[in-house]
Amino acid sequence: MLLQPIETTPIERTESAAITDEEAAALARATVNLFKAWKLSDAEATTLLGGLSTRTWARWKEGSIGRIDRDLRMRMAHLMGIHKGLRYLFKEPARGYEWVRKPNDTFDGKSALDLMLRGELSDLSDMRAYLDAERGAW
Q: CA nearest 52: which of 67, 37, 30, 33?
């Protein structure tokens, strides 16, 4: 049996998948609000944001958003995905905000926040995937 060559078709992208500067600034503002709802300390917030400096975090809380790198954009996108998953799972927003800190048997008695505070981007991605699976999304 002879293998036949496969013709490939290039992917045509009409729009960029990259998060724009305007979208990143909106994500930053939404992240500040989300962290208020989650009642995070400044240390917890800066850890979830990949080691963002406390000075930069303070500026964000005052409404001054500067340049946001690719890693930080992805972290915030995952955090918004986590928030969205919790909003789908809990009809009352406060329950979703509280769930983040509650010990969970699925996580060996740790909270979702405990797992996310390990600081890796993959921790946020994994939590988002877990919540998507729990609500039946792909």
A: 67
